[in-house]
Amino acid sequence: MCAGITLYAPLKKFGVRGDKKLNIGVVGIGGLGTMGIKIAAALGHNVTAISRSAHKEKLAQEKGAKGFINSSDPESMAKGAASLHLIVNTVSAPHQLKDLLPLLKSKGTLVQLGLVTEPHTFSQLDILFSNKTITASMIGGIADTQELLELCAEHNIAPDVQHIEANQIDWAYDQLLAG
Q1: Is residue 72 within 8 Å of residue 101, measured between CB atoms?
Q2: Domain CATH code at residue 148
Q3: pLDDT digits over 88-101, tens only?
Q4: Distances (CA, A) of 38 to 105, 137, 164
Q5: Strand order in the sheet with 133-136
Q6: Per-residue pLDDT for 164 more than 80?
Q7: 12 close to 115: Cβ distance less than 8 angstroms
């Protein structure tokens, strides 16, 4: 539920519940990102997954993404330029928002969800003349959570679960302690 509402609240705030179908980019194809892809696709939007890992393309398509941008490939980034109305950025590892801004259409919005404690730098010119917005979101309230649960029930959206055997946990813990 946490991943779902973390993605649903900003998607709703920035127009995914209206009649207009948007081109939505989801950055980071992990737990938050895959849930965001599922939700945006279920609402009928054209979803593009954005990842620096090319091997995430297949996973993103399985979750409902129609497009994929490899953010570590300049050619892929150039092809995706000015193609997205909205980007939700789930990445919490150090990176620069300035690298994502060219993917937004004029008047597009980039929503920062992943917490990055290092400063982001970008030129005001990157947002000024094209009227782009950078904002952030944390989580939604009770009413949004109820809407999300109804949407998930209607579209059979569930989180991905990975079953880990107890001996795998013990092995991983031993590896962690070993350094």
Answers
A1: no
A2: 3.40.50.720
A3: 999 999 999 999 99
A4: 22, 19, 24
A5: 67-70, 46-51, 23-27, 84-89, 104-112, 133-136
A6: no
A7: no
Nearest in space to 29 (alpha carbons), one of 2, 47, 12: 47
Structure tokens at 92: 């919490």
The answer to whether the predicted template modeling score (pTM) of the entire model surpasses 0.85 is yes
Residues in the chain: 179
- Closest of 91, 99, 97, 94 to residue 31, by C-alpha: 91
For residue 153, what are its two tokens? 């029930």
How far is Cα 93 from Cα 120, in angstroms, rounded to an integer? 12
Domain count, the chain: 1
Structural domain span for residue 106? 2-178
Q: Is the dihedral of CA 101, 103, 107, 109 positive or negative?
A: negative
Tell me the torsion sign for CA atoms 160, 165, 168, 169: positive
How does pLDDT run across 22-73, given as a tens digit for each residue?
Answer: 999 999 999 999 999 999 999 999 999 999 999 999 999 999 999 999 999 9
Res. 163: pLDDT tops 80 = no
Token pair listed for 20: 């207009």
